[in-house]
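Hi support team,

I submitted a single chain yesterday and got back a structure, but I'm not sure I'm reading the token output correctly. Could someone confirm the output below corresponds to the sequence I sent? I've pasted both exactly as they appear in my results page.

Thanks,
R.
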Amino acid sequence: STLGYQWQADTGTGYANIINGGVYSGATTNQLQITNTMGLNNVRYQCVVTSGGACPVTSSAVPLNINPRPTVANQTQAVCEGVAGSGIATVNLTTLNTAITSGVVGLTVTWFTNAALTTPVPSPANATATNNTTFYARVNNTSTGCNNSATATFTVNSKPTGVGTVTGPVSLCTDAEATYTISGISNALQYKWQVTPGLEIVSQTGTTASIRALSGTSGTINITPENSCGA
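Hi R., thanks for writing in. Yes, this is the structure output for that exact sequence:
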């Protein structure tokens, strides 16, 4: 005869028939569907099977064990471009694995270029990033098979770039003082002024310096634009 099914659940007060609705569907079929297992850890399930509405047989009961997803920590990193003006940095994503997993053992990290986790990063230890590039990590618990996802977003800072132009007199009388200014440089946070013997820096503020001639010999003014990414 036609078999009938009735799934039952025991949340701690004894078994009761499951009714379709909420997180449950298929309560009277041979396959119970649960769409959200939150709060159902250790709930016991069994199924009563009948033949033509009679001769009930109850299956063995099993608890539902809910394994948690791995806990992850999204990462943000500031890096420097490799070549001045390129806006491109090379990053080693594998150095972020421990931070993403908080050092928990038994977790593996696989890197992807898209949020759907379908396009792997070809070389995670040598990945290419531009400003605001986001990489996506799948964190998997090898014991439970549960996984979670995390992100690593990079800010790519620029090195100083441009062709510097120094303005100021090209000749000075001994003991005379003049103002020199550098322009044409982008992304510099500070400027290092240097002069050769025969010249003296009296004062310097950013792109401008006051320089005095100490002798009647020629000299050279060098300015090095710098920021946290280099000079």
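A quick pointer for reading it: The chain has a mean pLDDT of 95. Let us know if anything else looks off.

Best,
Support desk
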